[in-house]
Amino acid sequence: RTRAEAYLQTPVCEVVLGRPVQFSADPAADQRAEQRLREAALLAGFTDVSFVPEPIAAAAFYLNQVAAPETALVFDFGGGTLDLTLMRVDDRQTPTILATHGVLLGGDDIDSTLMHRHVAQCFGVDATIDVGYDDRTLLFPEDLAQLLDHWQTIPVLSQPQHLAVIQRARRHSPESGKFAALAALVTRNHGFALFEQIEQAKRSLSTQPQAQVNLQTDTIDLALTVTRREFNLTISEEVALARQGVRAIMTQAGIAPGDVNAVVTTGGSSVIPLFQQMLAHEFPVARLVPLDTFSGVVGGLAIRAQAKVEQMPA
Length: 314
Prior knowledge:
This protein is α/β, with parallel strands linked by helices. It contains 12 helices and 11 strands. The longest helix is centred in the C-terminal third of the chain and has 18 residues, at 236-253. It is globular and about 75 Å long.
């Protein structure tokens, strides 16, 4: 708001915000999430707050490119959610929304999967921590390993009861170096930096045959190579979820894939080749139309905001 006021040289009190089609499968939780977003905007100084589902905003942006009537699917795959909108458009006229559908899947989930399937092994999650009194091999506890799957939960491993397990592994594991790296990761707050590296590798794998996840500190020496083939195998469940979502919205709208003229993609995760291939397979006669990856939704929100202004009395 401050930057907008400085740029426009006028007070800015109204805002149009994007939101996922579905924050949560629980309607009450979904409303709580939107209310939190509204309260944040009010705290920022806005007095008039309205919301537009992000794929509807992307559709508004896409309308500027439409030259003839068509049926289009908007595939908005960002960091937090996958939002789908099926619509009929008619030469820049207001679209007719046939169906909307939200899938609780985002790019952050892919990051977590990469961490779980590849990177976490470098921190000892599949290593022996000790030998029990009856000579049984003790592995790193699964419930603690799961805390590594999200950067937000990594600091929980620094709690005394969890750190005691890690320190025991440092003393007794044949792979003590991995647990020394784990101790540094959880006590020196390197989790966010590690996930930034995972995110960068994911982006690189959209265009390169392989990528590295690198993190070097005084205790951590991580240089892990992930190939495109490994990446594709790793995200097969996420691709299946996205496919299920696409088929669900088609069933909801009651139309066949052959009736879709264009599949409009936006959001950073939409450029991952395996998802592009899935869409091409599901809609063999449709054009794949990539919007600006990171600003298509914002552009559509601006269009909706302008339309709201134009509807105000003079």
